[in-house]
Every structure is written in C-alpha cells, then in structure tokens.
UniProtKB/TrEMBL annotation:
This is Pyridoxamine 5'-phosphate oxidase family protein. It comes from Diplocloster agilis. Residues 11-127 form the Pyridoxamine 5'-phosphate oxidase N-terminal domain. SUPFAM superfamilies: FMN-binding split barrel (SSF50475). InterPro entries: Pyridox_Oxase_N, Split_barrel_FMN-bd, Stress-Dev_Protein. Pfam families: PNPOx_N.
Length: 138
C-alpha cells in the first residue's frame, strides 16, 4: 500500500457501515455495526454518534481500548484500525457532527442528554486486499 491515508480514507468514505469493537468488564470483545463516522481527520481521528445510555458508552468509559473495522464486500478488502475511544458530551462536539434528521434518534436535539459523540483515535491498522494483510502505524 503506497499511501495508507489515501487508500484507507477512500475505503472508509465509501462504506455505509463500520463495526466498532469494545471490551466488556470480563475482558471479552464486543462488536456493533454503526453508521460510518460523521467526520474524520485523516485516518487517525473519527467521530461517530451514539446514545449516551448505550452499552458501548459504558464499556468505553471503563476501558477505552477500541477498534473500528469496515470492508468493501465487492472487492473483498477491508481495514481494522485499533486505538482508543473517548466519549464527548460538550455542546461544541455534538454540534460539530449533528445532522438534519437526528431528532429521530435524539428528540431533544443537540442538548438531548442521550446524545453523545464517540471520538476514536487510531494508533495502528491492518489492511487486507488481494489475499494478503499489511500492518501499518498511524
């Protein structure tokens, strides 16, 4: 992979779903499908929306280790990014990724106490394409 930021960025931008992994209290992994990140900064930082009351938020508050994975099923290639997840509840972060129609999930709008932002910060990744895997640092 010549340019990880471009290759991974393009792959992420074209998908509709990412899989977010967390670690539960007993040390077991949990994975959940989510809509793709609302915003990304290169391939290091990603912002997603979720419910403050969700299981995932509780797990990330206790253990911030996380991963996100997405794949292009058509060409059978994918990427897993590993890093940490922060829970952001400040108004500025919530407004940054708020979209029209979000009141369907968060009826109280940007101030809804059950609306928060997940900020994922990647430290490394693993890319799969053409029947081989490649690790890379971010």
């Amino acid at each position: 992979m010549r340019n990880p930021e471009q290759t991974i960025g393009n792959l992420m931008d074209k998908q509709k779903v990412v899989y977010v992994g967390s670690v539960d209290e007993e040390g077991f992994p949990n994975v959940k499908a989510m809509y793709t990140p609302r915003k990304r900064e290169g391939i290091k930082t990603f912002y997603l929306t979720t419910n403050t009351s969700s299981r995932r938020v509780g797990e990330f508050l206790k253990k911030p280790q996380a991963c996100i994975y997405t794949c292009d099923r058509r060409f059978f290639r994918g990427v897993m990014l590993t890093g940490t997840m922060e829970i952001l509840t400040d108004r500025e972060s919530k407004e940054m990724i708020w979209q029209e129609g979000d009141t369907m999930y968060y009826p109280g709008g940007v101030e809804d106490p059950d609306y928060c932002v997940l900020k994922f910060t990647a430290v490394k990744g693993r890319y799969y394409s053409n029947f081989k895997s490649e690790d890379f640092n971010i």
